[in-house]
Design a protein that fits this description.
Homotetramer. By secondary structure, the protein is α/β, with parallel strands linked by helices. It has helices spanning 6-20, 24-47, 75-82, 95-109, 130-138, 174-185, 231-234, 262-267, 299-311, 326-329, 353-361, 379-389, 398-406, 426-433, 437-442, 444-455, 490-503, 508-529, 538-543; strands at 2-4, 59-62, 86-91, 113-118, 143-145, 158-162, 190-193, 215-219, 222-223, 237-241, 257-259, 288-292, 316-322, 337-341, 366-369, 394-396, 420-422, 458-461, 467-469, 475-477. The structure holds ligand LP7C6HRI and potassium ion (K). Ligand LP7C6HRI binds at residues 13, 24, 27-28, 31, 92-97, 99, 164-173, 176, 193-194, 219, 243.
Protein backbone atom coordinates (compact mmCIF):
# COMPACT_ATOMS: atom_id res chain seq x y z
CA UNK A 1 0.00 0.00 0.00
CA UNK A 2 1.39 3.35 -1.02
CA UNK A 3 1.82 6.16 1.50
CA UNK A 4 1.57 9.84 0.71
CA UNK A 5 2.13 13.05 2.62
CA UNK A 6 -0.18 16.09 2.46
CA UNK A 7 1.84 17.76 -0.28
CA UNK A 8 1.81 14.66 -2.50
CA UNK A 9 -1.91 14.23 -1.87
CA UNK A 10 -2.59 17.80 -2.99
CA UNK A 11 -0.54 17.20 -6.14
CA UNK A 12 -2.48 13.99 -6.89
CA UNK A 13 -5.76 15.86 -6.40
CA UNK A 14 -4.56 18.59 -8.74
CA UNK A 15 -3.52 16.16 -11.45
CA UNK A 16 -6.78 14.23 -11.22
CA UNK A 17 -8.83 17.39 -11.54
CA UNK A 18 -6.75 19.38 -14.01
CA UNK A 19 -5.00 16.78 -16.13
CA UNK A 20 -7.45 13.87 -16.10
CA UNK A 21 -10.51 16.10 -15.96
CA UNK A 22 -12.39 14.49 -13.11
CA UNK A 23 -14.28 17.34 -11.43
CA UNK A 24 -13.34 18.21 -7.85
CA UNK A 25 -17.01 17.84 -6.89
CA UNK A 26 -16.91 14.20 -8.01
CA UNK A 27 -13.94 13.48 -5.76
CA UNK A 28 -15.68 15.12 -2.84
CA UNK A 29 -18.84 13.16 -3.57
CA UNK A 30 -16.85 9.89 -3.64
CA UNK A 31 -15.06 10.86 -0.45
CA UNK A 32 -18.24 11.68 1.45
CA UNK A 33 -19.95 8.57 0.21
CA UNK A 34 -17.00 6.41 1.24
CA UNK A 35 -17.19 7.90 4.73
CA UNK A 36 -20.94 7.25 4.90
CA UNK A 37 -20.41 3.60 3.87
CA UNK A 38 -17.90 3.00 6.64
CA UNK A 39 -20.04 4.79 9.18
CA UNK A 40 -23.01 2.58 8.24
CA UNK A 41 -20.83 -0.51 8.43
CA UNK A 42 -19.72 0.49 11.89
CA UNK A 43 -23.29 1.05 13.07
CA UNK A 44 -24.35 -2.36 11.74
CA UNK A 45 -21.44 -4.13 13.45
CA UNK A 46 -22.21 -2.30 16.67
CA UNK A 47 -25.84 -3.39 16.51
CA UNK A 48 -24.65 -6.97 16.12
CA UNK A 49 -22.20 -6.50 19.01
CA UNK A 50 -19.42 -7.56 16.71
CA UNK A 51 -17.05 -4.70 17.47
CA UNK A 52 -13.97 -5.31 19.56
CA UNK A 53 -13.94 -3.18 22.74
CA UNK A 54 -10.87 -1.26 21.65
CA UNK A 55 -9.51 -0.40 18.21
CA UNK A 56 -6.99 -3.02 17.13
CA UNK A 57 -4.67 -0.71 15.21
CA UNK A 58 -5.65 -2.35 11.92
CA UNK A 59 -4.91 -0.80 8.57
CA UNK A 60 -7.17 -2.07 5.80
CA UNK A 61 -7.82 -1.09 2.25
CA UNK A 62 -11.11 -1.01 0.42
CA UNK A 63 -11.57 -0.61 -3.31
CA UNK A 64 -15.09 0.12 -4.58
CA UNK A 65 -16.68 -1.16 -1.37
CA UNK A 66 -15.75 -4.73 -2.25
CA UNK A 67 -17.23 -7.01 0.34
CA UNK A 68 -16.85 -4.63 3.27
CA UNK A 69 -20.39 -4.98 4.55
CA UNK A 70 -20.31 -8.75 4.69
CA UNK A 71 -23.55 -9.22 6.59
CA UNK A 72 -26.72 -11.07 5.82
CA UNK A 73 -28.90 -8.05 6.41
CA UNK A 74 -31.31 -6.66 3.87
CA UNK A 75 -31.36 -2.92 3.08
CA UNK A 76 -34.60 -2.70 5.07
CA UNK A 77 -32.94 -4.23 8.13
CA UNK A 78 -29.97 -1.90 7.78
CA UNK A 79 -32.26 1.12 7.57
CA UNK A 80 -33.98 -0.13 10.69
CA UNK A 81 -30.63 -0.12 12.51
CA UNK A 82 -29.77 3.35 11.19
CA UNK A 83 -33.08 4.75 12.45
CA UNK A 84 -31.79 4.12 15.97
CA UNK A 85 -28.72 6.29 15.33
CA UNK A 86 -28.23 10.03 15.64
CA UNK A 87 -24.81 11.34 14.69
CA UNK A 88 -23.35 14.77 15.23
CA UNK A 89 -21.32 15.83 12.20
CA UNK A 90 -18.52 18.28 13.03
CA UNK A 91 -17.95 20.38 9.93
CA UNK A 92 -14.76 22.40 9.38
CA UNK A 93 -14.59 25.20 6.86
CA UNK A 94 -12.31 23.50 4.31
CA UNK A 95 -12.78 20.51 2.03
CA UNK A 96 -12.62 18.08 4.93
CA UNK A 97 -15.83 19.71 6.10
CA UNK A 98 -17.18 19.35 2.55
CA UNK A 99 -16.61 15.58 2.75
CA UNK A 100 -18.54 15.57 6.02
CA UNK A 101 -21.47 17.40 4.43
CA UNK A 102 -21.64 14.86 1.59
CA UNK A 103 -21.55 12.02 4.13
CA UNK A 104 -24.37 13.66 6.10
CA UNK A 105 -26.50 13.86 2.97
CA UNK A 106 -26.03 10.15 2.19
CA UNK A 107 -26.65 9.11 5.77
CA UNK A 108 -29.86 11.11 5.93
CA UNK A 109 -30.93 9.40 2.72
CA UNK A 110 -30.35 6.09 4.47
CA UNK A 111 -32.78 7.27 7.17
CA UNK A 112 -30.23 8.02 9.85
CA UNK A 113 -30.64 11.19 11.94
CA UNK A 114 -27.79 13.61 11.51
CA UNK A 115 -27.16 17.08 12.88
CA UNK A 116 -24.51 19.34 11.41
CA UNK A 117 -22.35 21.36 13.75
CA UNK A 118 -20.44 24.00 11.81
CA UNK A 119 -17.23 25.19 13.45
CA UNK A 120 -17.92 28.69 12.08
CA UNK A 121 -20.88 30.26 10.34
CA UNK A 122 -21.41 28.32 7.11
CA UNK A 123 -21.24 31.55 5.07
CA UNK A 124 -17.48 31.40 5.66
CA UNK A 125 -17.23 28.14 3.78
CA UNK A 126 -15.98 28.82 0.29
CA UNK A 127 -14.56 26.79 -2.58
CA UNK A 128 -15.61 23.24 -3.32
CA UNK A 129 -17.42 22.73 -0.01
CA UNK A 130 -19.72 25.75 -0.51
CA UNK A 131 -21.94 23.79 -2.91
CA UNK A 132 -22.38 21.13 -0.23
CA UNK A 133 -23.54 23.76 2.26
CA UNK A 134 -26.22 24.77 -0.27
CA UNK A 135 -27.29 21.15 -0.75
CA UNK A 136 -27.49 20.59 2.99
CA UNK A 137 -29.65 23.70 3.31
CA UNK A 138 -31.91 22.68 0.44
CA UNK A 139 -32.42 19.31 2.12
CA UNK A 140 -33.09 20.93 5.51
CA UNK A 141 -30.44 18.89 7.28
CA UNK A 142 -30.64 20.16 10.87
CA UNK A 143 -27.65 22.34 11.68
CA UNK A 144 -26.19 24.65 14.25
CA UNK A 145 -23.08 26.74 14.66
CA UNK A 146 -20.56 26.00 17.39
CA UNK A 147 -20.58 28.61 20.13
CA UNK A 148 -24.05 29.98 19.38
CA UNK A 149 -25.59 27.80 22.08
CA UNK A 150 -24.14 25.41 24.68
CA UNK A 151 -23.18 22.04 23.24
CA UNK A 152 -25.18 19.15 24.62
CA UNK A 153 -24.24 15.65 23.51
CA UNK A 154 -27.31 13.98 25.01
CA UNK A 155 -29.20 11.88 22.47
CA UNK A 156 -26.32 11.45 20.05
CA UNK A 157 -24.91 8.00 19.31
CA UNK A 158 -21.71 9.02 17.56
CA UNK A 159 -19.63 11.86 16.15
CA UNK A 160 -18.19 12.32 12.69
CA UNK A 161 -15.06 14.43 12.76
CA UNK A 162 -14.82 16.38 9.50
CA UNK A 163 -13.03 19.37 10.96
CA UNK A 164 -9.47 19.26 9.67
CA UNK A 165 -7.80 17.13 7.01
CA UNK A 166 -4.65 17.45 4.96
CA UNK A 167 -4.99 21.24 5.04
CA UNK A 168 -4.15 21.34 8.75
CA UNK A 169 -1.40 23.73 9.70
CA UNK A 170 -0.08 23.30 13.20
CA UNK A 171 -1.92 23.17 16.49
CA UNK A 172 -5.74 23.47 16.15
CA UNK A 173 -6.71 27.02 16.99
CA UNK A 174 -9.76 28.91 18.19
CA UNK A 175 -13.14 27.21 17.77
CA UNK A 176 -11.48 24.12 16.29
CA UNK A 177 -9.55 23.54 19.50
CA UNK A 178 -12.56 24.16 21.75
CA UNK A 179 -14.75 21.83 19.70
CA UNK A 180 -12.16 19.04 19.61
CA UNK A 181 -11.79 19.21 23.38
CA UNK A 182 -15.53 19.01 23.95
CA UNK A 183 -15.95 16.16 21.45
CA UNK A 184 -13.22 14.15 23.21
CA UNK A 185 -14.98 14.74 26.49
CA UNK A 186 -18.34 13.50 25.17
CA UNK A 187 -17.50 9.80 25.52
CA UNK A 188 -19.16 9.16 22.16
CA UNK A 189 -17.45 7.00 19.53
CA UNK A 190 -15.85 9.12 16.82
CA UNK A 191 -15.11 8.44 13.19
CA UNK A 192 -12.61 10.76 11.52
CA UNK A 193 -12.75 11.84 7.91
CA UNK A 194 -9.32 11.40 6.30
CA UNK A 195 -7.39 11.93 9.55
CA UNK A 196 -8.19 12.73 13.15
CA UNK A 197 -8.32 16.50 13.43
CA UNK A 198 -5.14 17.59 15.15
CA UNK A 199 -2.78 15.00 13.68
CA UNK A 200 0.10 16.01 11.44
CA UNK A 201 -0.63 14.10 8.23
CA UNK A 202 3.06 13.72 7.37
CA UNK A 203 4.78 12.84 10.63
CA UNK A 204 2.11 11.38 12.91
CA UNK A 205 2.79 14.08 15.47
CA UNK A 206 -0.31 14.71 17.58
CA UNK A 207 -1.13 18.28 18.47
CA UNK A 208 -2.98 19.33 21.59
CA UNK A 209 -5.96 18.95 21.35
CA UNK A 210 -6.51 16.14 18.87
CA UNK A 211 -9.56 14.00 18.11
CA UNK A 212 -9.31 10.47 19.56
CA UNK A 213 -10.97 8.44 16.83
CA UNK A 214 -12.34 4.92 16.91
CA UNK A 215 -12.03 4.66 13.13
CA UNK A 216 -10.35 6.82 10.55
CA UNK A 217 -11.65 6.67 7.00
CA UNK A 218 -8.57 7.71 5.09
CA UNK A 219 -9.31 8.99 1.61
CA UNK A 220 -7.56 7.90 -1.59
CA UNK A 221 -4.14 7.04 -0.14
CA UNK A 222 -2.86 6.21 3.32
CA UNK A 223 -1.24 9.29 4.84
CA UNK A 224 2.21 8.63 6.26
CA UNK A 225 1.28 10.24 9.58
CA UNK A 226 -1.35 7.57 10.25
CA UNK A 227 1.29 4.84 10.19
CA UNK A 228 3.47 6.31 12.92
CA UNK A 229 2.79 6.75 16.63
CA UNK A 230 1.25 8.68 18.27
CA UNK A 231 -0.83 9.48 15.15
CA UNK A 232 -1.53 5.78 14.62
CA UNK A 233 -2.97 5.57 18.11
CA UNK A 234 -5.44 8.45 17.88
CA UNK A 235 -6.55 7.19 14.45
CA UNK A 236 -7.94 3.93 15.86
CA UNK A 237 -8.56 1.41 13.10
CA UNK A 238 -7.79 2.85 9.70
CA UNK A 239 -9.57 2.01 6.49
CA UNK A 240 -8.27 3.46 3.24
CA UNK A 241 -11.06 4.13 0.74
CA UNK A 242 -10.62 4.64 -2.93
CA UNK A 243 -12.25 7.89 -4.19
CA UNK A 244 -11.50 7.53 -7.89
CA UNK A 245 -8.03 9.06 -8.07
CA UNK A 246 -6.27 6.98 -10.76
CA UNK A 247 -3.73 4.74 -9.00
CA UNK A 248 -1.36 5.16 -11.96
CA UNK A 249 -0.85 8.83 -11.05
CA UNK A 250 0.92 7.78 -7.85
CA UNK A 251 3.36 5.55 -9.68
CA UNK A 252 6.07 8.10 -10.36
CA UNK A 253 9.83 7.71 -10.62
CA UNK A 254 10.21 9.45 -7.27
CA UNK A 255 11.25 6.99 -4.55
CA UNK A 256 7.98 6.35 -2.77
CA UNK A 257 6.84 5.26 0.67
CA UNK A 258 4.92 2.07 1.31
CA UNK A 259 3.16 0.15 4.02
CA UNK A 260 5.04 -3.15 4.04
CA UNK A 261 2.44 -5.70 3.02
CA UNK A 262 3.09 -9.07 1.45
CA UNK A 263 2.11 -7.53 -1.87
CA UNK A 264 4.69 -4.75 -1.48
CA UNK A 265 7.35 -7.28 -0.51
CA UNK A 266 6.69 -9.24 -3.67
CA UNK A 267 5.86 -6.53 -6.19
CA UNK A 268 7.88 -3.54 -5.06
CA UNK A 269 10.82 -5.36 -3.50
CA UNK A 270 10.95 -8.56 -5.55
CA UNK A 271 11.12 -10.78 -2.47
CA UNK A 272 9.85 -14.33 -2.90
CA UNK A 273 8.61 -15.14 0.61
CA UNK A 274 8.00 -18.81 0.02
CA UNK A 275 10.80 -19.54 -2.40
CA UNK A 276 11.60 -23.23 -2.61
CA UNK A 277 15.11 -24.39 -1.97
CA UNK A 278 17.16 -25.71 -4.84
CA UNK A 279 16.63 -29.51 -4.82
CA UNK A 280 20.38 -30.13 -5.10
CA UNK A 281 21.38 -27.22 -2.86
CA UNK A 282 23.81 -27.79 0.02
CA UNK A 283 24.72 -25.76 3.07
CA UNK A 284 27.20 -23.73 1.01
CA UNK A 285 24.39 -22.65 -1.29
CA UNK A 286 22.67 -20.64 1.43
CA UNK A 287 25.51 -18.53 2.67
CA UNK A 288 27.56 -18.24 5.80
CA UNK A 289 26.92 -15.62 8.47
CA UNK A 290 29.79 -14.35 10.59
CA UNK A 291 28.66 -12.74 13.80
CA UNK A 292 30.91 -10.57 15.98
CA UNK A 293 29.04 -10.32 19.26
CA UNK A 294 28.98 -11.00 22.97
CA UNK A 295 31.19 -10.14 25.91
CA UNK A 296 31.25 -10.87 29.63
CA UNK A 297 27.68 -10.88 30.90
CA UNK A 298 26.22 -10.44 27.41
CA UNK A 299 26.87 -13.70 25.62
CA UNK A 300 23.11 -14.28 25.32
CA UNK A 301 22.94 -11.56 22.67
CA UNK A 302 25.34 -13.50 20.46
CA UNK A 303 23.46 -16.74 21.00
CA UNK A 304 20.13 -15.23 20.08
CA UNK A 305 21.46 -13.49 16.97
CA UNK A 306 23.31 -16.53 15.64
CA UNK A 307 20.44 -18.89 16.29
CA UNK A 308 18.07 -16.48 14.53
CA UNK A 309 20.41 -16.35 11.53
CA UNK A 310 20.24 -20.14 11.26
CA UNK A 311 16.46 -20.15 11.62
CA UNK A 312 16.26 -17.50 8.89
CA UNK A 313 17.73 -20.10 6.59
CA UNK A 314 21.42 -19.40 6.12
CA UNK A 315 23.54 -22.51 5.49
CA UNK A 316 26.14 -21.89 8.16
CA UNK A 317 26.78 -19.49 11.01
CA UNK A 318 30.00 -18.74 12.84
CA UNK A 319 30.04 -16.75 16.01
CA UNK A 320 33.27 -14.84 16.64
CA UNK A 321 33.49 -14.15 20.38
CA UNK A 322 36.06 -13.30 23.03
CA UNK A 323 38.06 -16.51 23.53
CA UNK A 324 37.55 -16.80 27.27
CA UNK A 325 33.75 -16.87 26.74
CA UNK A 326 33.85 -19.78 24.32
CA UNK A 327 33.98 -22.66 26.81
CA UNK A 328 30.85 -21.34 28.53
CA UNK A 329 28.66 -21.28 25.44
CA UNK A 330 30.14 -24.25 23.62
CA UNK A 331 27.14 -26.51 23.87
CA UNK A 332 24.36 -23.91 23.87
CA UNK A 333 23.65 -24.09 20.13
CA UNK A 334 25.30 -27.19 18.68
CA UNK A 335 24.48 -26.13 15.09
CA UNK A 336 26.71 -23.08 15.50
CA UNK A 337 30.45 -22.79 14.85
CA UNK A 338 32.48 -20.79 17.33
CA UNK A 339 35.53 -18.72 16.44
CA UNK A 340 37.29 -17.72 19.68
CA UNK A 341 39.11 -14.40 19.33
CA UNK A 342 42.24 -13.65 21.37
CA UNK A 343 41.13 -11.69 24.46
CA UNK A 344 43.93 -12.38 26.95
CA UNK A 345 41.31 -13.93 29.23
CA UNK A 346 39.31 -10.68 29.54
CA UNK A 347 36.07 -11.97 27.95
CA UNK A 348 36.01 -8.68 26.05
CA UNK A 349 36.96 -7.15 22.72
CA UNK A 350 39.95 -5.07 21.66
CA UNK A 351 41.02 -3.05 18.66
CA UNK A 352 43.29 -5.89 17.53
CA UNK A 353 40.33 -8.26 17.21
CA UNK A 354 39.23 -6.48 14.02
CA UNK A 355 42.01 -8.15 11.99
CA UNK A 356 40.92 -11.60 13.15
CA UNK A 357 37.28 -10.85 12.29
CA UNK A 358 38.22 -9.61 8.84
CA UNK A 359 40.32 -12.72 8.23
CA UNK A 360 37.36 -14.93 9.18
CA UNK A 361 35.14 -12.93 6.88
CA UNK A 362 37.23 -13.86 3.83
CA UNK A 363 35.44 -17.20 3.66
CA UNK A 364 32.03 -16.00 4.83
CA UNK A 365 29.24 -14.10 3.11
CA UNK A 366 28.09 -11.44 5.56
CA UNK A 367 29.22 -9.85 8.82
CA UNK A 368 26.87 -8.82 11.61
CA UNK A 369 28.40 -6.94 14.51
CA UNK A 370 27.10 -5.39 17.66
CA UNK A 371 24.85 -7.43 19.92
CA UNK A 372 26.45 -7.60 23.36
CA UNK A 373 29.83 -6.31 22.13
CA UNK A 374 30.23 -3.93 25.05
CA UNK A 375 32.33 -0.78 24.87
CA UNK A 376 36.12 -0.92 25.03
CA UNK A 377 39.28 1.05 24.45
CA UNK A 378 40.10 1.31 20.77
CA UNK A 379 36.48 0.62 19.79
CA UNK A 380 36.44 3.43 17.24
CA UNK A 381 39.43 2.01 15.38
CA UNK A 382 37.98 -1.50 15.69
CA UNK A 383 34.72 -0.53 14.08
CA UNK A 384 36.35 1.65 11.46
CA UNK A 385 38.50 -1.31 10.42
CA UNK A 386 35.34 -3.41 9.96
CA UNK A 387 33.45 -0.61 8.21
CA UNK A 388 36.21 0.12 5.73
CA UNK A 389 37.68 -3.37 5.49
CA UNK A 390 34.65 -5.66 5.25
CA UNK A 391 34.07 -6.29 1.57
CA UNK A 392 30.84 -8.17 2.32
CA UNK A 393 27.46 -6.86 3.46
CA UNK A 394 27.59 -5.57 7.01
CA UNK A 395 24.83 -5.40 9.61
CA UNK A 396 25.46 -3.11 12.56
CA UNK A 397 23.39 -3.12 15.71
CA UNK A 398 23.48 -2.12 19.37
CA UNK A 399 26.96 -1.29 20.70
CA UNK A 400 28.39 -1.18 17.18
CA UNK A 401 25.98 1.69 16.47
CA UNK A 402 27.02 3.50 19.63
CA UNK A 403 30.65 3.13 18.58
CA UNK A 404 29.77 4.47 15.15
CA UNK A 405 28.00 7.44 16.72
CA UNK A 406 30.91 8.12 19.10
CA UNK A 407 33.29 8.11 16.14
CA UNK A 408 31.26 10.79 14.34
CA UNK A 409 28.92 8.61 12.26
CA UNK A 410 29.33 7.16 8.79
CA UNK A 411 30.22 10.57 7.35
CA UNK A 412 33.58 10.38 9.13
CA UNK A 413 34.65 7.23 7.29
CA UNK A 414 35.15 5.98 3.77
CA UNK A 415 31.92 5.13 1.95
CA UNK A 416 31.52 1.38 1.78
CA UNK A 417 31.37 -0.56 -1.49
CA UNK A 418 29.36 -3.42 -0.04
CA UNK A 419 26.00 -2.82 1.62
CA UNK A 420 25.55 -1.66 5.21
CA UNK A 421 22.36 -2.22 7.17
CA UNK A 422 22.05 -0.22 10.40
CA UNK A 423 19.36 -1.26 12.88
CA UNK A 424 19.09 1.46 15.57
CA UNK A 425 16.34 1.83 18.11
CA UNK A 426 15.27 5.46 18.65
CA UNK A 427 17.95 6.11 21.31
CA UNK A 428 20.73 4.78 19.09
CA UNK A 429 19.31 6.72 16.15
CA UNK A 430 19.40 9.89 18.22
CA UNK A 431 23.10 9.37 18.93
CA UNK A 432 23.83 8.58 15.27
CA UNK A 433 22.00 11.65 14.00
CA UNK A 434 23.13 13.94 16.83
CA UNK A 435 19.58 14.87 17.88
CA UNK A 436 17.35 14.04 20.86
CA UNK A 437 15.24 10.88 21.00
CA UNK A 438 12.11 13.06 21.00
CA UNK A 439 13.33 14.66 17.79
CA UNK A 440 13.82 11.22 16.22
CA UNK A 441 10.30 10.15 17.18
CA UNK A 442 8.77 13.40 15.94
CA UNK A 443 9.45 12.54 12.30
CA UNK A 444 10.76 8.97 12.07
CA UNK A 445 10.09 8.55 8.36
CA UNK A 446 11.66 11.83 7.32
CA UNK A 447 14.75 11.31 9.45
CA UNK A 448 15.28 7.71 8.36
CA UNK A 449 14.97 8.64 4.69
CA UNK A 450 17.39 11.55 4.95
CA UNK A 451 19.94 9.47 6.86
CA UNK A 452 19.82 6.55 4.40
CA UNK A 453 20.13 8.84 1.38
CA UNK A 454 22.92 10.92 2.87
CA UNK A 455 25.07 8.00 3.98
CA UNK A 456 24.23 5.38 1.36
CA UNK A 457 23.06 2.83 3.94
CA UNK A 458 19.91 0.83 4.57
CA UNK A 459 18.44 2.07 7.80
CA UNK A 460 16.08 0.13 10.04
CA UNK A 461 14.62 2.51 12.61
CA UNK A 462 13.08 0.19 15.18
CA UNK A 463 10.11 0.69 17.49
CA UNK A 464 6.39 0.12 16.91
CA UNK A 465 5.90 0.51 13.13
CA UNK A 466 9.56 0.08 12.27
CA UNK A 467 10.72 2.23 9.35
CA UNK A 468 13.04 0.75 6.72
CA UNK A 469 14.75 3.37 4.55
CA UNK A 470 16.65 2.25 1.49
CA UNK A 471 19.69 3.98 0.07
CA UNK A 472 17.64 4.98 -2.99
CA UNK A 473 15.22 6.95 -0.79
CA UNK A 474 12.35 4.46 -0.72
CA UNK A 475 10.73 3.94 2.66
CA UNK A 476 8.79 0.96 3.99
CA UNK A 477 6.72 1.01 7.19
CA UNK A 478 6.24 -2.35 8.87
CA UNK A 479 2.79 -3.16 10.22
CA UNK A 480 3.61 -6.53 11.81
CA UNK A 481 4.62 -7.08 15.42
CA UNK A 482 3.10 -6.73 18.85
CA UNK A 483 3.90 -4.84 22.06
CA UNK A 484 4.70 -8.27 23.54
CA UNK A 485 7.97 -8.04 21.58
CA UNK A 486 9.18 -5.20 23.79
CA UNK A 487 11.52 -7.59 25.58
CA UNK A 488 15.30 -7.95 25.92
CA UNK A 489 16.96 -9.73 23.00
CA UNK A 490 14.25 -9.10 20.40
CA UNK A 491 16.62 -6.73 18.59
CA UNK A 492 19.43 -9.32 18.61
CA UNK A 493 17.02 -11.74 16.95
CA UNK A 494 16.27 -9.20 14.22
CA UNK A 495 19.98 -8.66 13.56
CA UNK A 496 20.42 -12.39 13.11
CA UNK A 497 17.44 -12.68 10.77
CA UNK A 498 18.63 -9.85 8.53
CA UNK A 499 22.15 -11.31 8.39
CA UNK A 500 20.74 -14.76 7.62
CA UNK A 501 18.73 -13.35 4.72
CA UNK A 502 21.68 -11.35 3.37
CA UNK A 503 23.74 -14.55 3.41
CA UNK A 504 21.14 -16.13 1.13
CA UNK A 505 21.67 -13.42 -1.46
CA UNK A 506 18.89 -10.96 -0.70
CA UNK A 507 19.83 -7.33 -1.28
CA UNK A 508 20.19 -5.02 1.71
CA UNK A 509 16.73 -3.51 1.39
CA UNK A 510 15.13 -6.89 0.68
CA UNK A 511 16.79 -8.47 3.70
CA UNK A 512 15.99 -5.53 5.96
CA UNK A 513 12.33 -5.27 4.90
CA UNK A 514 11.61 -8.99 4.75
CA UNK A 515 13.55 -9.52 7.97
CA UNK A 516 11.58 -6.89 9.87
CA UNK A 517 8.32 -8.22 8.44
CA UNK A 518 8.87 -11.86 9.42
CA UNK A 519 10.37 -10.88 12.77
CA UNK A 520 7.09 -9.10 13.55
CA UNK A 521 4.97 -11.95 12.23
CA UNK A 522 6.90 -14.54 14.23
CA UNK A 523 6.48 -12.31 17.29
CA UNK A 524 2.71 -12.15 16.72
CA UNK A 525 2.53 -15.93 16.49
CA UNK A 526 4.74 -16.38 19.52
CA UNK A 527 2.54 -13.98 21.51
CA UNK A 528 -0.64 -15.77 20.40
CA UNK A 529 0.86 -19.07 21.57
CA UNK A 530 1.37 -17.75 25.11
CA UNK A 531 -1.35 -17.80 27.71
CA UNK A 532 -0.50 -14.16 28.37
CA UNK A 533 1.41 -12.32 25.59
CA UNK A 534 3.42 -10.43 28.21
CA UNK A 535 5.32 -13.63 28.95
CA UNK A 536 6.87 -13.73 25.47
CA UNK A 537 10.67 -13.78 25.49
CA UNK A 538 13.00 -13.21 22.55
CA UNK A 539 13.83 -16.88 22.10
CA UNK A 540 10.11 -17.55 21.40
CA UNK A 541 10.34 -15.33 18.32
CA UNK A 542 13.11 -17.54 16.94
CA UNK A 543 11.01 -20.66 17.49
CA UNK A 544 8.17 -19.18 15.43
CA UNK A 545 10.26 -18.18 12.41
N1 LIG B 1 -9.92 17.81 -4.32
C1 LIG B 1 -9.55 17.76 -3.09
O1 LIG B 1 -8.76 18.59 -2.69
C2 LIG B 1 -10.11 16.75 -2.21
C3 LIG B 1 -10.00 16.91 -0.85
N2 LIG B 1 -10.69 16.17 0.01
C4 LIG B 1 -10.71 16.48 1.41
O2 LIG B 1 -10.17 17.75 1.63
C5 LIG B 1 -9.28 17.74 2.70
C6 LIG B 1 -8.28 18.84 2.55
O3 LIG B 1 -9.04 20.02 2.40
P1 LIG B 1 -8.44 21.50 2.58
O4 LIG B 1 -9.53 22.40 2.24
O5 LIG B 1 -7.19 21.60 1.83
O6 LIG B 1 -8.06 21.57 4.09
P2 LIG B 1 -8.82 21.17 5.44
O7 LIG B 1 -10.25 20.92 5.21
O8 LIG B 1 -8.02 20.10 6.03
O9 LIG B 1 -8.66 22.42 6.40
C7 LIG B 1 -8.48 23.68 5.92
C8 LIG B 1 -9.22 24.70 6.77
O10 LIG B 1 -8.91 24.64 8.11
C9 LIG B 1 -8.21 25.81 8.55
N3 LIG B 1 -7.10 25.37 9.39
C10 LIG B 1 -6.01 24.69 9.01
N4 LIG B 1 -5.25 24.38 10.08
C11 LIG B 1 -5.88 24.91 11.15
C12 LIG B 1 -5.58 24.92 12.54
N5 LIG B 1 -4.47 24.35 13.01
N6 LIG B 1 -6.43 25.51 13.39
C13 LIG B 1 -7.56 26.09 12.90
N7 LIG B 1 -7.90 26.13 11.59
C14 LIG B 1 -7.07 25.53 10.73
C15 LIG B 1 -7.78 26.50 7.29
O11 LIG B 1 -7.76 27.86 7.47
C16 LIG B 1 -8.85 26.06 6.31
O12 LIG B 1 -9.98 26.86 6.41
C17 LIG B 1 -8.73 16.35 2.71
O13 LIG B 1 -8.20 15.99 3.96
C18 LIG B 1 -9.95 15.55 2.33
O14 LIG B 1 -10.73 15.33 3.49
C19 LIG B 1 -11.61 15.14 -0.48
O15 LIG B 1 -11.16 13.92 -0.07
C20 LIG B 1 -11.88 15.16 -1.97
C21 LIG B 1 -10.75 15.56 -2.78
K1 LIG C 1 -10.84 15.05 10.11
Amino acid sequence: MRLVDAEQMRELDRQTIQEIGIPAAVLMENAGRAIAEELIRWCVLRSEQQLPKEPEGLIEEDVLGMGRLACQKSPAEIRQILRQEHWLMLIGKGNNGGDGLVAARHLMNAEMSVTLLYVTVPEQITGEAAAQVQAARALNIPSRVFGEQPLDFAGYTGILDALLGTGTSGVPRGSYAALIEQANGSGLPMISADLPSGVNADTGEVYEPCIQARITVCLAFLKTGLTQYPGAKVAGDVVVKDIGIPASLAETDEPGSFLLTEEVLIRELGVQPSRRRDPDGHKGTYGHVLLAAGSAGMSGAGLLASKAALRAGCGLATWALPGALAPHVLSAVPELMLAPIGDGGSKGWSQAAADEVLRLLETRSVLAAGPGLGRFEGEGAFLRALWEGARRPLVLDADALNMLAAAGGPAAWKRRDAAAVLTPHPGEMARLAGVSTAEVQRDRIGLARRFALEHGVTLVLKGARTVIAAEDGRVFVNPTGTPAMATGGAGDVLTGIIAGLLAQGLTAVQAAAFGVYVHGLAGERAAAARHNPASLIAGDIIEHL
